[in-house]
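hey
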């Protein structure tokens, strides 16, 4: 069973529509749709926006459906001048840029008593996704790197530059690192797939609604192709 999480309805509605023999269940205020996608058994769920929603959803998904893989699909803001709107970022790892326990001797971003600053994605999933994206989205670029998560829509240059300076991320968003942490704690292989909807700068509020739909299309196309390979 493959678990697929998106934060917003727009990120999962086509995935749900493409599921055959679908069964819908409600758990903990979340709606899970289970069935076959590209010939593979999947459970798709909308987590809601933000790290708490994402982490709670991942825990329920893993506990209830005993998934073998977790794929987080969605959109993000670019942190790298080379990564353009529409491009795909695959998580090498994920970190929370708004976690700060430095006063107690921890690194910026490190969660106290967890033992790691970031959570490493599964190498096999990264390789398969990179390969598939070349096929299904041939006109865009694929990047592998750190996904930076925080409970903020980044839309100013100062915040963007601060995240880049301290975390060397490829993109920023609001859920990935929480999903990564719960998957990591449960020893479930995971991958965060992000299509770029904006540049996470002073133009983000204008770019996001303009390019959101196209970015989601790229991400969903890749997610379905990856599912078919698992």
């Amino acid at each position: 069973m493959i678990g697929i999480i998106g934060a917003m309805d727009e990120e999962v509605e086509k995935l749900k529509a493409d599921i055959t023999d679908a069964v819908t269940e409600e758990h903990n205020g979340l709606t899970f749709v289970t069935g076959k996608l590209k010939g593979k058994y999947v459970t798709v769920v909308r987590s809601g926006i933000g790290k708490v929603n994402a982490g709670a959803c991942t825990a329920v998904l893993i506990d209830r459906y005993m998934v073998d893989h977790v794929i987080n699909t969605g959109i993000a803001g670019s942190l790298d001048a080379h990564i353009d709107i529409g491009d795909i970022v695959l998580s090498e790892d994920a970190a929370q840029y708004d976690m700060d326990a430095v006063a107690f001797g921890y690194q910026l971003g490190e969660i106290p008593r967890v033992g790691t600053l970031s959570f490493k994605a599964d190498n096999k999933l990264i390789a398969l996704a990179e390969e598939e994206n070349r096929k299904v989205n041939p006109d865009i670029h694929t990047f592998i790197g750190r996904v930076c998560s925080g409970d903020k829509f980044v839309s100013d240059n100062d915040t963007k530059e601060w995240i880049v300076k301290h975390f060397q991320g490829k993109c920023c968003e609001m859920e990935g690192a929480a999903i990564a942490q719960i998957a990591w704690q449960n020893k479930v292989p995971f991958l965060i797939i992000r299509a770029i909807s904006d540049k996470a700068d002073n133009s983000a509020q204008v770019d996001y609604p303009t390019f959101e739909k196209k970015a989601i299309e790229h991400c969903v196309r890749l997610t379905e192709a990856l599912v078919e390979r698992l």
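The mean pLDDT is 95. Residues 50 and 120 are 20 Å apart (CA to CA).
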